[in-house]
Write the structure tokens for this entry.
Amino acid sequence: MGNGIELPKRQQEILASVVRRYVSTGLPVGSKTVADELSESLSSATVRNVMAELEEAGFLEQPHVSAGRVPTDKAYRFYVDHAGRLGRLNPATAQYILDHLDGSDASPEELMAKTSRVLSEVSHYVGLVLGPALEEKLLEHLKLVALPGRRVLAVIVSRPDLIENKVIRLDEDVSQEELDRAAEYLSSEFRGWSLRTIRLEVFKRLEEMKTVPDKMLARVGMLFHAGALGSDESGPLFVEGTAKILDHPEFGGAHHAQELLASFEEKAKLVKILSACVESPAVGVRTVIGRENPHTEMQQCAFIVAPYRYRHRAVGALGVVGPMRMEYDRAITMVEYIAHLTSRLLSLN
């Protein structure tokens, strides 16, 4: 979520210095502090004038008349897009992540849960993982079992998950023999396809066969309409370390903290942010900072999220949420590393 803002080199350096210092200390940053840190030799008065220009442009604000300045969400956005210093993850941190995530014995769901915990532990923020939606999973095998009351049990064997069961209700009676034929058709015809793509293809074939109805294909279409093989529901959401957000002074006020914690309970809002990452054609880590978030109670936060993949297909997203006063360089590097690792481990299943 970048922007096209450009700043002169001197303003860029001073803004980056203010962001780094404020992230490090949490205290308003004065011109003398910045002047001491710059590679270019500038007087405090010159730096003060540049900081005043940045304040007028909406990048800095002054909490008190006598205080230094602090970055706005616009400043953090510029820093992430233009001035960040991304590097390699600390070797000890990388090893910790590997030790806690690597291992072939974990199911995909266990991997998602462990990943959210590791994200939170390593970042000291809230860890988020959105599991693959049913529609995005690749069909391996399907079994359909007739139940009383026009209900059908769909046993879906897919990747990257193993087995998922769904019970749906049909509008008319269907025999077990018809269900067996439908399941065999789908398993043989569409093995390795995503359930979303299968549904689109089935409806396309039904449309093309209107003049010559195919009873078996019509049964398959009815199963899709009933939701047996996917829906618009998102995948499971794993949230870990919610209480860690309260360790940051930005959320020290009881009312604000209560609002924020309540927003984490409304998981649909978190799912929407993570789903946008999965659906975006953009590659790599995405950031949502401050007022870029439409939910007002989360506008003091920053989200760092990235898609993870199953055999080169984005199937879910993971990341962290913390205060805007965040170590963006480290957080982005960490989220990217864990997304790549999760993709690799998931694709082994």
About this structure: The radius of gyration is 25 Å. The mean pLDDT is 85. Residues 137 and 160 are 6 Å apart (CA to CA). The beta strands are 60-61, 70-71, 126-130, 138-147, 151-159, 163-169, 237-240, 286-289, 301-310, 313-323.
